[in-house]
Description:
The protein is α/β, with parallel strands linked by helices. 39% of the residues lie in helices and 23% in strands. The strands form four sheets. It has a five-stranded parallel sheet with strand order 2-1-3-6-7, sandwiched between helices. A four-stranded antiparallel sheet has the order 8-9-10-11, covered by helices on one side. A three-stranded antiparallel sheet has the order 12-14-13.
Amino acid sequence: xxxxxxxxxxxxxxxxxxRLRSADFAVELAASRSEAEDWPDVDRMSAVILDxxxxxxxxxxxxxxxxDRRVETPIVILTARxxxxxxxxxxxxxxxxxVVKPVRFEELLARLNALFRRQHGSRATIIEAxxxxxxxxxxxxxxxxxQLALSRQEFRLLHLFMRRAGQLLSQGDIxxxxxxxxxxxxxxxxxxxxxxxxxxxxxxxxxxxxxxxxRFEK
Length: 218
């Protein structure tokens, strides 16, 4: 899952990006309103974490800009401004959540996961498909009651497939979900990962449509 963090403080941006990547997100960082406003695929992000105090403009105006242009990506405001007026203004402008700095990373992560559960219309943490069960919070996957030994990238790939079971995913879709834009994004990486995952969950679970992509069968 890809996140865009809009934060002008270099040290906070670095630490937040590192913690989110350690939680298995692919994270992009924008340090200003103009950089974030020009981001090429903000509508394809899983979520945006947005600071309000940016050096070249208001994060609140950036939020309104995105919502005016029908960008429906979930947006979490993360700011030092903690008055009730700020919260009301941010939520009314289209934010999905409002978090006041300083905040423990565990709380921010819990809020993101709650947001994703609401987005997918379910309060359940566990994702199930056939004999597979995946818990994204515990980072565990089971098949027929047996714990699966998955690498970090294999787990992220399985998470993507199970979230979008039955949908055809191109190599580009998979790369966008698993890797930041500046990461190594060689397409044969997808083929290698899928080959390894097939050996662990069964080849029949992931079908290939040549030239189009892959589909996870429920």
